[in-house]
Amino acid sequence: MVEIICKDKTELPQVAASLLETFHSDRFFAFFGNMGVGKTTLIKEICAILGVEDNVCSPTFSIVNEYISSEGESIYHFDFYRLKNLEETYDMGYEEYFYSGNYCFVEWSEKVETLLPDTYIRVNITEESNGTRKFLAQRIIT
Fold it and tell me: Which of 37, 44, 69, 86 could form an SS bridge with 56, CB 3.0 to 4.6 Å?
């Protein structure tokens, strides 16, 4: 398990780099945290490190955005906040994304937790009373 304390947004590139270095062989990251805690902002920083030049934004309405890394690989960014039921994930063919071997970054993972791969990186983000953010990341194997 990795714990990182972030005092402000200027430290997010280091948080993103630390996650990618610590979990260098992993490609599936499930983010958990309250609305506004910084899930999308952290994913933007991770994508920047991976060389994404596209505008990285939350796919709240489209559910999934695809970006291309500097290596020419697809990166998938999900936001399941508006998901009404699991049937919607089946209809979108989530398996093709989740098991592609490409980077997958999932916001509102708790809505699809039963569909997550057997191995993934769980990133919990909490806001502390002083405004700092705490990132707890660990590999989950079910």
Answer: 44
